[in-house]
Amino acid sequence: MSDDTLTRSLLVTGSSGYIGTHIACQALHNGWQVRATTRSEAVPDFTKHEAYHSILAGVTDIVHAASPFNLQPQDNAKDVLEPAIQGSLAILEAAIRYGPQVRQVINIASFAAIVDTSKGLRPGHTYSEKDWNPMTYDQAVATSNGPATYCASKSLAERAMWDWMEDNKLNVPFTLSVINPPWVFGPYYADPDLGTLCDSVAALWRLFGAKTVPPTDFAGFVDVRDVAKAVMLALDNPAAAGRRFLLGASLDWQTAADIIRKRFMAAQERVPVGRPGYGKLESVYNIDGRQAQRVLGLAYTPLDSTLYSTVCQLLKAEEADKGSY
Question: Which residues cross the membrane (predicted)?
Answer without folding.
Answer: none
